[in-house]
Amino acid sequence: MPTELEELVGLVADPKPEVRVLAAEHLVPYSTSQPAIFKTDNLKPIKNLKILIRDHPQIAQHVITMLVNLSADREVLECLATDDKFLSEVLRQVTVVSEPNANLLSMLLANLAKWDSLKTIVDKKQPPPVELKSNDLIMNQLVDLFVKGAEGTYNKKADFDHLSYLFADLTKHPEVRHYFVRKQEYDGVIPLTKLKVFTEHKSEVRRKGVASTIKNVAFDVASHPLFISEDDIDIMPYLLLPITGNEEYDEEETMAMLPDLQLLPPDKQRDPDPNIIQTHIETLLLLATTREIRDYMREIKVYPIIRETHSRVNNEGVQDACERLVQLLMRDEAESKETARVEELGEAKVADEDDDDDQIVEV
Hints:
The chain is an all-alpha fold. The protein has a domain at 1-81: Leucine-rich Repeat Variant (Alpha Horseshoe). Helix content is 54%, strand content 0%. It has helices spanning 4-10, 17-27, 30-33, 40-52, 57-70, 74-81, 84-95, 102-112, 138-148, 163-170, 174-180, 191-195, 204-217, 224-228, 236-240, 251-256, 274-287, 291-299, 302-312, 316-330, 341-345. The radius of gyration is 23 Å and the shape is elongated.
């Protein structure tokens, strides 16, 4: 005989909207405290919730919130992430300019990316909303949504910050990394250049997700020349500025730095999150795979910035990353053989499961 809670779960699919909204509202807390009640009868409650994301906005809000929380369960995650019809609906809804639950849908997508098969969205297409001015490739739509939607400029009820976590998880996969470093025909822009401008954004979620995405894409060693080319990705200022504070350097060091790093204001602060700082330094480590980029880092005086970061950020992970990069930059190249630094860091470091941005989002 079903329990009272199981009966309440069943009421979410009631024909009367006033019953559905009350049931959904009361069930939200149980999606984190007692997720098992949603897994009865061969996941029938989950299947109902998948349909109800198209319900009235108030009901859909509770439903999507529950799905965000319930996707922490691997069985539920598989049920959601492998349902192509459901995924297509989520991807359609999140791009609608008037969608009131777009942020929740962004969180749900970020969680669904924990399932490896979601990488196939890199090839999916759908008609784009006219307002988005994108093309029919869903990845382009999501990147444009992330950029144009920052701070409610596309959808007044959404900032799309959590899409950065989606990108961070998707870039664990080589085919998605490849997408982010290839110029897109519809606008002639490399997607990673659209994300790099957010490394100093006020949103910690956005900064953290973008930092991890850049780091993961940097595992594509063949694209490293694009990373430092001013005509392509030109990533260096966007990695160095977040880890730079208001320190003063001697004139010779300052004049050799990138123009963006010279004459910084006296109130310049480095990123307050040491995990983000560590991620940027680990990206520099990945880029230091080749002699060419190591020489470039020496030329633009990366070492003094790392030196000051090491002395001023009291964090073991940051200091360890700084020390590893210093060893690379200060070594005698004439007596060293080329080493595969990517292999040293290890593929396991891509979207590390210990990173905050790689965790299941709960609401």
